[in-house]
Design goal:
Layout (H helix, E strand, L loop, with lengths): L1 H4 L7 H17 L13 E9 L10 E4 L5 E3 L5 E7 L2 E8 L6 E7 L3 E7 L24 E4 L1 H5 L6 H5 L5 E6 L3 E6 L2 E2 L3 E5 L2 E2 L20 E5 L4 H4 L6 E6 L8 E11 L4 E12 L2 E15 L2 E2 L4 E2 L4 E13 L3 E15 L9 H9 L17 E17 L3 E17 L12 E18 L3 E16 L1 H4 L7 E17 L2 E21 L6 E5 L2 E18 L2 E12 L3 H5 L1 E4 L4 E4 L14 H4 L3 E13 L3 E26 L2 E25 L4 E14 L4 E2 L7 E13 L2 E13 L32 E14 L2 E10 L23 E9 L1
Parallel strand pairs: 1-7, 12-15, 33-36
Antiparallel strand pairs: 1-4, 2-3, 2-5, 5-6, 8-14, 9-10, 10-11, 12-13, 14-15, 16-17, 16-43, 17-18, 18-21, 19-20, 21-22, 22-23, 23-24, 24-25, 25-26, 26-27, 27-28, 28-29, 28-30, 30-31, 31-34, 32-33, 34-35, 35-36, 36-37, 37-38, 37-39, 39-40, 40-41, 41-42, 42-43
Length: about 800
């Protein structure tokens, strides 16, 4: 068993089989007359869902029990019933179109009845109630969500890694610990992340800068695939990722949950715990505190260790709020901190070693396993605070005012000479203040309106006196304002939506620039930029029949060039590469650089169409999209360069006109009441229209599926399931060709515009199993997952460290989840 956990060649089934046997022995060894035996799992809950303000019926509401995966829909009178439940504690979410979801913790000892009251009109922008149709209208935007059991199976993973369970989402990876989400081929500055209603502001431009978000705090991860600039800001060219925590409780009581997770690969683990409650003397008040931690050692490829890839992470959050009939306030604070090791073999001393690394099948540096994290490494801390107040009136709609404060501290450590290794080579501090005023109103029977104003103040500061190096990205000060308007019209089977947004950005930069043709920074410049962008979208939803929905959206998003794209100059430690932007070269330091003469705005036009089909046995979603992006900014390989720090690949930011098109597919078929088959697939085609070539760093075609068998009750084991899944990724053959005479500095330059040919196709298998065990009046959830089940050697095209090492090998993960 121990050698299997270390990814040797013993059969994969032994450890998984042992874990399943232990679960079965637990179930069969308990007396059949225990409190939660199958004979007693016949309890039910029933009741009605009403409007919180006027007591009216909320017909066709939905109820979902997170602990069991069971759900139900209320009828036209708002009445519901859930049967086949065991005694214990359950976490339930009640939702209705146009209402804020309600989360409740129920203690069930006998048949019980409840009345749930929801706050109506709280989410007008996302969904609308059509009283003449029993089928809820879907959002105009194409959205996919990760919730329930699937979300629980990702606990302990990074945010980006967890999102790969969704169709159309992949990751730009830097080794085994850094995962950056990619939505339909786009990532980084083109993806907006929303953390508890606040736009995440961090150094997200780096391809190895993972989102500073703790996935443990979420009970729903949502990916919006359409161009979402009107709702989320001009950066949402490729879509948005929304992290939603549970709603705060509004009733007295103390509830909580705990998670404990162990990994065989990296010999690591993670843990989280949360407590929440309310006050007897103040109905409507709720609070929550939550914390999590993670510690891993060096990860392992199938045949060798990946030295210096450990992780340390510690996160804390606290929230409190009060809800009255028409108004409410809430506050939130979180601190995310992590330390990540970067693969030691990615830092090369000379061009000969770089050539050897590209041609070798194993890393040039392999050390014994350790939990210690040495240079090169990253140390990142992110503090987020939020305060929000809202007021709702029947005549003037709902008004909300929200302040968000964020402070991002990023330090990157390099392998430096002498006693300077303890000094960061990159030290950036980013402070951001945002203020959002939003208004929503439902007027008449068919019209919904929404508008808002946003303001941002941001300051990026480099601690050059500490690092003793030239900053990779310069100091800058940004002031920006934006305004948007959205109109919705709903009638019968149709829903139409149109929106418009304008943004203005004032930005001043303080940096050193190079004279044309020079490799030394010799001119101090302080240019001031005035940037503008205009975004818009139109969309429609048509209900063909109950359970069959067509969605179509055409969006324009105008993204302004960022400071890293204009001014990057130097070694990017996390990717072990040199990156340079065009604005660092100037012959007139008194004037600086006009960004309009260097990079123009990206103008992204995206048309996405989605067909959703839901039937009792078969359900699925097919999305097809076309995106044209004049002014697309990307990193182009330029060759290699030998510096005082070593030999590194060189990348330059360049601009072209791009075209992306593709499709995502997700299908679920119930073969029987217990046997479920799922399938997913994604295809992206991307072209550089000006150079008549392919774009780099585009996900390869991929397809996957799973077969799951479920037992609702097996003596003491509730909701037992066993699932086997596979994913196949084709070789990315659509890559730029090396038609130019670039200085790669290698004896055998590659035939593609890269430092190595794309890796071959690969197929991975995974195994998942889980159940819920009775533990007194509460319950313990247990899941077992094995990724890369066959310990396959592979390298992914989107892994920036694929030049130096294989991806990770087999990993057994055991998760314990306790709620009360």
């Amino acid at each position: 068993m121990k050698s299997w956990l270390r990814n040797t060649s013993l059969p994969a089934g032994r450890a998984v089989g042992a874990a399943l046997v232990l679960l079965l022995l637990w179930g069969w060894s308990r007396p059949a007359t225990a409190q939660s035996s199958s004979a007693e799992c016949r309890l039910s809950i029933s009741g009605q869902v009403l409007d919180e303000h006027d007591g009216s019926v909320l017909e066709f509401s939905t109820l979902y029990i997170h602990d069991t995966g069971k759900g139900a829909s209320a009828d036209a009178e708002g009445r519901f019933q859930l049967t086949g439940l065991c005694p214990g504690t359950y976490h339930i979410t009640v939702s209705h179109i146009g209402c804020k979801p309600l989360d409740r913790t129920l203690q069930l000892t006998s048949d019980s009845s409840f009345v749930f009251r929801l706050e109506h009109h709280a989410e007008l922008l996302q969904e609308v109630v059509i009283s003449t149709r029993p089928v809820p209208i879907a959002p105009v935007q194409t959205e996919v969500t990760l919730t329930g059991r699937t979300l629980q199976e990702t606990r302990g993973q990074a945010l980006g890694e967890a999102l790969t369970r969704l169709p159309g989402v992949s990751v730009l990876q830097t080794g085994p610990t850094i995962f950056k989400p990619v939505i339909q081929g786009l990532y980084g500055n083109r993806i907006q992340l929303i953390n508890n209603g606040v736009r995440l502001e961090s150094q997200r431009w780096g391809t190895e800068h993972a989102p500073e978000i703790d996935p443990f705090l979420a009970n729903e991860l949502k990916v919006v695939k359409g161009a979402s600039a009107v709702r989320y800001g001009p950066e949402a060219v490729g879509g948005a990722i929304v992290v939603n925590p549970p709603t705060l409780p509004t009733e007295a009581g103390l509830h909580g949950e705990a998670n404990l997770i162990g990994f065989s690969n990296s010999r690591g683990g993670a843990a989280s715990a949360s407590l929440e409650g309310g006050l007897n003397r103040l109905e409507g008040f709720g609070w929550r505190i939550q914390g999590s931690g993670k510690r891993t050692g060096d990860w392992r490829a199938p045949t060798y260790l990946l030295s210096n890839t450990g992780v340390k992470e510690l996160n804390l959050t606290a929230a409190a709020g009060y809800q009255h009939d028409r108004w409410g306030v809430d506050v939130y604070a979180s601190r995310f901190s992590t330390e990540l090791g970067i693969l030691r073999s990615a830092h090369i001393g000379n061009l000969t070693d770089l050539q050897d690394a590209l041609e070798s099948g194993t890393p040039r540096y392999i050390a014994p396993f350790t939990y210690a994290i040495a240079n090169p490494r990253q140390r990142v801390a992110h503090l987020l605070t939020k305060a929000r107040a809202y007021y709702q009136s029947e005549h003037s709609g709902k008004w909300s005012l929200q302040y968000g404060g964020q402070y991002n501290n990023r330090r990157e450590f390099d392998i430096r000479r002498g006693d300077r290794s303890d000094r960061p080579a990159l030290f950036m501090q980013l402070a951001t203040h945002t203020l959002d005023l939003n208004w929503e109103q439902e007027r008449h029977a068919h019209w919904r309106h929404a508008a808002g104003l946003t303001g941002t103040l941001q300051h990026n500061r480099n601690r050059s006196l500490i690092t003793g190096t030239l900053p990779l990205v310069p100091d800058f000060l940004t002031r920006s304002v934006g305004a948007y308007w959205i109109e919705r019209y709903v009638r019968d089977r149709w829903e139409l939506e149109a929106g418009l947004r304008g943004d203005y950005r004032w930005q001043q930069v303080l940096t050193f620039a190079r004279s044309a043709g020079s490799y030394t920074a010799d001119s101090l410049i302080r240019p001031v930029y005035h940037l503008k962008s205009l975004s818009g979208s139109v969309g429609a939803v048509y209900h063909v029949d109950e359970g069959v929905v067509l969605q179509s959206q055409l969006g324009l998003a105008s993204r302004m060039p960022t400071m890293n794209e204009l001014y990057s100059q130097g070694l990017h430690h996390g990717t072990a590469s040199l990156e340079r932007g065009p604005a660092i070269y100037t012959a007139d330091p008194a004037v600086g650089v006009n960004p309009d003469t260097v990079f123009r705005n990206e103008q992204a036009y995206k048309w996405i169409n989605t067909l959703t089909y839901k039937r009792p046995r078969l359900s699925g979603e097919l999305s097809a999209y076309f995106q044209y992006i004049p002014g697309f900014i990307f990193l182009q390989p330029q060759g290699t360069e030998l510096t005082i720090r070593g030999a590194f690949p060189v990348f330059h930011y360049q601009q072209t006109d791009a075209r992306l098109l593709g499709a995502d597919l997700n299908v679920t078929y119930n073969l029987t009441s217990r046997l479920v088959l799922t399938g997913q697939g994604a295809v992206v085609r991307a072209r550089d229209l000006l150079r008549r070539d392919f774009l780099p760093w585009i996900p390869a075609d991929r397809i996957g599926g799973s077969l799951t068998y479920q037992w609702p009750q097996l003596r003491q084991l509730r909701n037992l399931y066993l699932s086997v899944g596979t994913s196949h990724v084709r070789q990315q053959t659509r890559v730029p060709t090396n038609r130019e005479h670039l200085n790669f500095g290698l004896e055998t330059p590659p035939t593609v515009l890269d430092f190595a040919a794309p890796p071959p196709a690969y197929t991975l298998w995974r195994l998942d199993a889980g159940t819920t065990l009775p533990l007194g009046p509460h319950q313990l959830g247990v899941t077992v997952s094995v990724t890369n089940l066959l310990n396959t050697r592979y390298r992914d095209y989107l892994n920036r460290l694929r030049y130096y090492a294989d991806d990770t090998g087999r990993n057994l993960t055991i998760r314990l989840h306790y709620s009360f």
